[in-house]
Amino acid sequence: MNRKDKFSKNEHRFQSDDPLMCEELSDCLYEVLPVERNVIIVCIGTDRSTGDALGPLVGSMLRDQAMQSFHIYGTLEEPVHALNLNETMQSIQRLHPKPTILAIDACLGKKASIGSVVFGHGALTPGAALNKDLPAVGDYHISGLVNVGGFMEYVVLQNTRLHLVMNMAAKIAASLRLTEAKRMNERFKNQPYQNFLAATKKQQ
User: Is 73 in contact with 41 (CB distance < 8 Å)?
Assistant: First the structure.
């Protein structure tokens, strides 16, 4: 659970109730995530708190799909949270040398921003909204603003509407599925050329 009071120039902001949100977020993701490399998606949060369940919900929705260019960490069944974040990141570094990481987490912010989804360059800081000292995560990040920050955050998270969180999670997951389809299509387009080059080198 991070905190978002201001938006930077390196961030794109979407409204989860916008019919075009999935396509627009997918376009941003496809533009910056390297097609030739698999991307690690770290979905941060816990199923023990409605407001903080956004990340695990996205992770579970993606895990149910046949994702080939994305590796998913963090689901409702196996969440990535404050108690195992360091261990998870160490495991990722061991299994995926020099990984490109997209972090997904719920966020608290201003009332007018509730329902916004933010995509940006750089890491996010899990636990910042709850004053937890956790490592920054991600080369890129997606934050979903689920409720108001600044006062009694634990209570606010427990009283966040599940409908809002589910809707935002479904939109983020759909955007990533669209991105996956674009990435795999681009890879398949390049394969015949790459196979031809490999065959030519063998003949030489």
Answer: yes
Decide if 102 contacts 141 (C-beta within 8 A).
Answer: yes
Q: What pLDDT is stored for residue 156 in this prediction?
A: 85
DSSP structure string for 122-162: S-B-TTGGGT-----B-SEEEEEEEEE-SS-HHHHHHTS-H
For tokens 């050329």, name the residue: 193
Query: Do 70 and 38 form a contact (C-beta atoms < 8 A)?
Result: yes
**Intra-chain end-to-end CA distance of the chain, in Å:** 56
What pTM does this model have? 0.87
SS (H, E, C) 56-72: HHHHHHHHCCCCCCEEE
Q: What is the mean pLDDT of the chain?
A: 88
